[in-house]
C-alpha cells in the first residue's frame, strides 16, 4: 500500500518537490540513514523522555505530519499506517541530514503511531497487564499502580498541550468534550477503561488524566477467593445471595475494587433475566445475553441536554427490568433506587463510597434527603431496612491487597434504629505488623435472616453449609 504503485489507493504522502529529498526506492524501510549527526543529541533511553523532547523527534514529527496526506489516512488502521510512517521517517531523516539508527527509527515510528491512534506516550502502559491505574499529573509526571502501590514511570509528554490533545481525543471518542469552558469530564476507552480528565486552570500544574484500566482477566468470586480477597465461605454465601435475588450494596473507598466485585457478583444472575445497568461512564461487563446499558450525559455548552442518573433510574423502571444495577449511588438517585428495590425489582445492586456498612446506611439516608428533604428520618430508615438485604464492605489495605472485610445483613428495625448483623468479618493480626497484612476471615455462628428466602429458591441447605464456622 505504501511505497508501491497502487492506482486506486491515494498516496499517504502529499505531492511535494524537495531537492534534498532522498528517493524512497533507494532507502529500504528499516535501513540506517547515516548522515551528519547532531552534536550533543541525547541518547534515546528506555523511557520516552529523551525521545519525545529531543530536537530529532520534533523535526521528524513536524515533517511527518506536514507531509502526510490526511485524506488517505482516514479509515486506516495502525498496522496499515505503519509502513507508510516508516517510509516518511526515513525520507525526512535523509532530507534533514539526521543520523537515525534502526532502534531510534522504531521508537520514533511507535511514538508517532501512538499519537495518531492511541493515548500518546502512555500507550505502552495500557498494554501492560500489571498496571491497574495510570495517573498523569501534567506533562512531567506519569505514575502507575502495580500490586496496589504507586510507582513513578520514565514516560513523559512533550508539553501540556500534548496532554490536553490526548485528553480531548479520548473525550471525543465517546461523544464528550473537554476544554476551558468544560474542564472536567468522565469518559472511557475502547476497552472499557474509565478515564477522568481535569484541565487547567482547575489543574494548576498542568492537565491531569486518571485512567482506571479495565482488567482483561475475567475476575470471578472464585478467583477472588483463591487470591485471598475473601474466604471460600464468603464466596459461597455471595454466590447464593445473587442467586436468591438479594438487593446488595457494595461499599468501600476509592480504588478499593467495588466495580470489580459488582462485576463478579453479576456472574450468578440468571440468563433469562432482563438487566438494566446505569453508569456515568460504562464500565460493567456483564456476561448475560439480555443486558441494556444506559449512560448519563453531561450538559452541553449552553447548559442544556444533561441527563442525570436519577433520570435514567426513573426511565429504567418503565423498561420492564428484572434487575437494575447502578454503577455508583452518589446523589438523589438513591431515593429512586430504594423505590425500585421495594417495588419488585429484587436482585438489584449498586456501589457506594463508605468506610463501614453502618456508614453506608448513614450516607444512604443523607442522599435520600437530598432528593426529598420533607421525608421523616424514620420513614427513610424503614425504606432502607426493607429494601437492602446485604452490604458487602471491601477495602484496599496498606499492603495493596483488596479484601472483603465484612459482609453485613440488614435484619429489620428496632424502634428507630436499623438492626444489622455481621455474617463475616476480616480480623487482622496486630501483632504481625510488617509489609503484608496478616489476618483471618471469621464466620459468625448465626443463622442468616434470608434463610427463608433461600428456602424459596431451594438453596437453604447450601446456605447453612456455607455458614458453618
Description:
It comes from Caballeronia udeis. The protein is of the alpha/beta class and 469 residues long. The chain has 16 helices and 15 strands. The strands form 2 sheets. A 9-stranded mixed beta sheet has the order 9-8-10-11-7-12-13-14-15, with helices on both faces. Strands 3-2-1-6-5-4 form a 6-stranded antiparallel beta sheet. A hairpin with a 5-residue loop joins strand 4 and strand 5. The protein is elongated. The chain starts with 48 loop residues before the first helix and ends with a helix.
Describe the secondary-structure layout.
Blueprint lengths: L48 H4 L2 H13 L2 H4 L4 H18 L6 H16 L5 H5 L3 E7 L4 E5 L2 E4 L7 H14 L10 E5 L5 E5 L9 E5 L8 H7 L4 H12 L4 E5 L5 H9 L8 E5 L11 E5 L13 H8 L6 E4 L6 H9 L7 E5 L3 H15 L5 H11 L2 E7 L5 E13 L2 E12 L10 E5 L7 H6 L3 H7 L3
Parallel strand pairs: 7-11, 7-12, 8-9, 8-10, 10-11
Antiparallel strand pairs: 1-2, 1-6, 2-3, 4-5, 5-6, 12-13, 13-14, 14-15
Family: Belongs to the GSP E family.
Protein name: Pilus assembly protein CpaF
InterPro entries: P-loop_NTPase, T2SS/T4SS_dom, T4SS_GSP_E_ATPase
Helix share of residues?
Answer: 25-40%
Summed up, the helix count is 16
Overall average pLDDT? 83
Shape: elongated
The Rg value, from CA coordinates, equals 27 Å
Total count of strands:
15
Tell me the structural class. Answer: alpha/beta
**How is the main sheet built?**
9 strands, mixed
What is the terminal-to-terminal distance?
Answer: 67 Å
| Uncertain stretches of 5 or more adjacent residues | 1-46
Q: Per DSSP, what share of the residues sits in E-state strands of 2 or more residues?
A: 15-25%
Name the strands of the widest sheet in spatial order: 9-8-10-11-7-12-13-14-15
Organism: Caballeronia udeis
Pfam families: T2SSE (PF00437)
InterPro entries: P-loop_NTPase, T2SS/T4SS_dom, T4SS_GSP_E_ATPase
Family: Belongs to the GSP E family.
Amino acid at each position: 500500500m505504501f511505497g508501491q504503485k497502487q492506482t486506486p489507493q491515494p498516496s499517504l504522502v502529499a505531492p511535494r518537490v524537495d531537492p534534498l529529498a532522498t528517493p524512497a526506492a533507494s532507502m529500504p524501510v528499516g535501513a540506517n540513514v547515516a548522515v551528519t549527526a547532531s552534536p550533543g543529541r541525547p541518547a534515546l533511553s528506555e523511557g520516552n523522555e529523551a525521545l519525545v523532547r529531543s530536537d530529532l523527534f520534533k523535526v521528524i514529527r513536524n515533517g511527518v505530519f506536514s507531509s502526510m496526506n490526511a485524506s488517505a489516512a482516514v479509515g486506516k488502521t495502525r498496522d496499515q499506517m505503519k509502513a507508510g510512517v516508516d517510509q516518511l521517517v526515513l525520507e525526512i531523516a535523509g532530507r534533514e541530514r539526521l543520523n537515525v539508527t534502526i532502534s531510534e527509527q522504531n521508537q520514533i515510528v511507535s511514538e508517532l503511531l501512538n499519537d495518531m491512534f492511541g493515548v500518546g506516550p502512555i500507550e505502552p502502559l495500557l498494554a501492560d497487564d500489571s498496571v491497574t491505574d495510570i495517573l498523569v499529573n501534567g506533562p512531567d509526571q506519569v505514575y502507575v499502580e502495580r500490586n496496589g502501590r504507586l510507582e513513578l514511570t520514565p514516560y513523559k509528554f512533550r508539553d501540556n498541550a500534548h496532554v490536553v490533545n490526548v485528553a480531548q481525543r479520548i473525550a471525543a471518542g465517546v461523544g464528550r468534550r473537554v476544554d476551558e469552558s468544560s474542564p472536567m469530564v468522565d469518559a472511557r476507552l475502547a476497552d472499557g477503561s474509565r478515564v477522568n480528565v481535569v484541565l487547567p486552570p482547575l489543574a494548576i500544574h498542568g492537565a491531569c488524566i486518571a485512567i482506571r484500566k479495565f482488567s482483561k482477566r475475567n475476575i470471578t468470586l472464585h478467583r477472588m477467593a483463591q487470591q485471598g480477597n475473601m474466604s471460600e465461605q464468603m464466596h459461597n454465601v455471595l454466590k447464593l445471595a445473587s442467586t436468591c435475588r438479594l438487593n446488595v450494596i457494595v461499599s468501600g473507598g476509592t480504588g478499593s475494587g467495588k466495580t470489580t466485585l459488582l462485576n463478579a457478583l453479576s456472574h450468578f444472575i440468571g440468563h433469562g433475566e432482563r438487566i438494566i445497568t446505569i453508569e456515568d461512564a460504562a464500565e460493567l461487563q456483564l456476561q448475560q445475553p439480555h443486558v441494556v446499558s444506559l449512560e448519563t450525559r453531561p450538559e452541553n455548552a449552553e447548559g442544556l441536554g444533561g441527563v442525570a442518573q436519577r433520570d435514567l433510574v426513573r426511565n429504567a423502571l418503565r423498561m420492564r427490568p428484572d434487575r437494575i444495577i447502578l454503577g455508583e449511588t452518589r446523589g438523589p438517585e438513591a431515593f429512586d433506587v430504594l423505590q425500585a428495590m421495594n417495588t419488585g425489582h429484587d436482585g438489584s445492586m449498586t456501589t457506594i463510597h463508605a468506610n463501614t456498612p453502618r456508614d453506608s446506611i448513614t450516607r444512604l439516608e443523607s442522599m435520600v434527603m437530598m432528593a426529598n428533604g420533607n421525608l421523616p428520618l424514620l420513614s427513610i430508615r424503614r425504606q432502607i431496612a426493607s429494601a437492602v438485604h446485604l452490604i458487602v464492605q471491601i477495602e484496599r489495605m496498606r499492603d495493596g491487597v483488596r479484601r472483603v472485610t465484612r459482609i453485613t445483613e440488614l435484619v429489620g428495625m428496632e424502634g428507630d434504629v436499623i438492626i444489622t448483623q455481621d455474617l463475616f468479618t476480616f480480623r487482622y493480626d496486630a501483632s504481625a505488623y510488617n509489609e503484608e497484612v496478616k489476618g483471618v476471615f471469621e464466620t459468625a455462628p448465626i443463622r442468616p435472616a434470608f434463610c427463608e428466602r433461600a428456602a424459596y429458591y431451594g438453596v437453604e441447605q447450601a446456605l447453612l453449609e456455607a455458614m458453618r464456622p
